[in-house]
């Protein structure tokens, strides 16, 4: 009897093992866990290409002594604060089991490694997220810009809104809902030039009250940012391409096939000229300022 039960249990487990495929994500792929020359965008881009499922493993490949890895809070991630990490592993390579859903934040604590871009944010879910079917859509939708992140200076820079817009189809009649803090942010509708230069002294319209709901009335490219100091430079900027509501197949120029080979393959949005205009050195200079601001 016991024997049979044991066999049954073993069989059940074997069944589970085959259905639940555990993925080991090698952080940074062949680059491993290093200070990336590109700055924070490197791991942001890597992360955006992955789907992290409950039970998966994160494999941080690094040399003991040269690097370390700490799991930290969102706030510590943002400010590169390595005091009181949730967990710290100093011997490499290191595995982290993703045993709960939600966001995980990792930084390197040595020297200025985090400030220079050795930081990773991921989101763990229970199932491969809903793949928005790029079928032709005619019924307008409401989109919450940035989803739960809202409309803020994104911790990882502009990649956040690039990724958000990626694979989304916008049609005339859709509404963008921007959630932000009154009096510490706003939504400026701007031209492509302003989007690129972050010179926000001129804008087409500014919305001061959150939530700001902006209905897309025209096809073509639309650009949004904030007029508050440095917000645009730090990546609070959104570019989208609105197609007609009559359901021409959504064009995804700069999609996976035509995307840049190495860089933020994540998420070249329709507006392919825009991404990653801020040179890394600029980010490096500005990051400490951001910390001061925060
Ligand atoms: C980890 O890094 C070492 C040294 O760079 C490399 O030889 C090895 O293949 C890497 N392992 C993985 C799983 O990428
Ligand atoms: C870093 O975090 C620690 C504890 O979490 C906190 O006491 C400290 O004030 C933080 N430092 C900065 C510069 O925010
Ligand atoms: C990390 O996990 C992988 C895959 O499960 C395993 O092959 C490897 O031995 C583990 N390495 C360490 C250092 O625990
Ligand atoms: C996840 O793993 C960590 C460290 O291994 C452990 O402290 C924690 O209790 C685990 N959480 C769950 C929900 O199993
Ligand atoms: C969008 O939101 C507005 C009000 O916030 C609501 O009236 C409208 O029905 C929503 N549209 C869709 C498609 O959800
Ligand atoms: C993480 O994933 C959950 C579930 O898909 C989602 O609700 C949440 O907004 C995501 N968080 C971030 C920061 O993307
Ligand atoms: C975007 O869509 C393409 C094809 O439609 C798919 O291969 C890719 O995984 C999607 N990317 C994301 C981040 O959803
Ligand atoms: C920003 O734009 C305004 C008008 O569009 C211009 O007068 C100003 O010189 C620009 N500032 C910079 C720093 O380029
Ligand atoms: C922002 O201000 C508007 C108008 O005063 C108000 O209706 C709205 O509730 C405020 N939003 C937040 C998030 O405080
Ligand atoms: C925006 O979409 C239109 C229609 O699909 C397309 O013709 C145009 O090239 C797109 N613009 C950009 C910058 O991708």
TrEMBL record:
Domain Phytocyanin: 23-126, 141-244
Pfam families on file: Cu_bind_like
Annotated InterPro entries: Cupredoxin, Phytocyanin-like, Phytocyanin_dom
GO terms of molecular function: electron transfer activity
Gene Ontology cellular component list: plasma membrane
Gene3D superfamilies named in the record: Cupredoxins - blue copper proteins
Signal peptide positions (record): 1-21
Domain of life assignment: Eukaryota
Keywords: Disulfide bond, Glycoprotein, Signal
PANTHER family (alphabetical): BLUE COPPER PROTEIN (PTHR33021), PHYTOCYANIN DOMAIN-CONTAINING PROTEIN (PTHR33021:SF325)
Protein name according to UniProt: Phytocyanin domain-containing protein
The organism of origin for this protein: Carpinus fangiana
């Amino acid at each position: 009897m016991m024997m049979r039960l044991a066999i049954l249990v073993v069989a059940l487990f074997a069944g589970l093992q085959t259905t639940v495929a555990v993925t080991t994500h090698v952080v940074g792929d062949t680059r491993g866990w290093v200070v990336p020359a590109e700055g924070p965008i490197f791991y942001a881009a890597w992360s955006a290409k992955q789907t992290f499922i409950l039970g998966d493993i994160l494999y941080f490949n690094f040399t003991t002594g040269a690097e370390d890895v700490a799991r930290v809070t969102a706030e510590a991630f943002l400010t590169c604060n390595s005091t009181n990490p949730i967990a710290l592993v100093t011997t490499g390579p290191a595995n982290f089991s993703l045993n709960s859903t939600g966001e995980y934040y990792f930084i390197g604590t040595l020297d200025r490694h985090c400030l220079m871009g050795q930081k990773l944010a991921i989101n763990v879910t229970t199932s491969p997220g809903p793949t928005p079917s790029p079928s032709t859509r005619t019924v307008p939708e409401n989109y919450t810009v940035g989803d739960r992140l809202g409309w803020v200076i994104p911790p990882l820079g502009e990649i956040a809104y690039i990724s958000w817009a990626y694979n989304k189809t916008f049609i005339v009649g859709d509404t963008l809902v921007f959630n932000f803090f009154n009096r510490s942010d706003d939504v400026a509708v701007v031209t492509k030039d302003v989007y690129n230069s972050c010179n926000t002294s001129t804008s087409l319209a500014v919305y001061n009250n959150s939530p700001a709901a902006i209905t897309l009335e025209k096809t073509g490219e639309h650009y949004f940012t904030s007029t508050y100091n440095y917000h645009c430079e730090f990546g609070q900027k959104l570019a989208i391409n609105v197609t007609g509501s009559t359901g021409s197949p959504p064009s995804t120029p700069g999609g996976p096939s035509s995307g840049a080979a190495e860089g933020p393959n994540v998420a070249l949005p329709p507006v392919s000229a825009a991404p990653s205009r801020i040179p890394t050195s600029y980010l490096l200079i500005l990051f400490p300022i951001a910390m001061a601001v925060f």
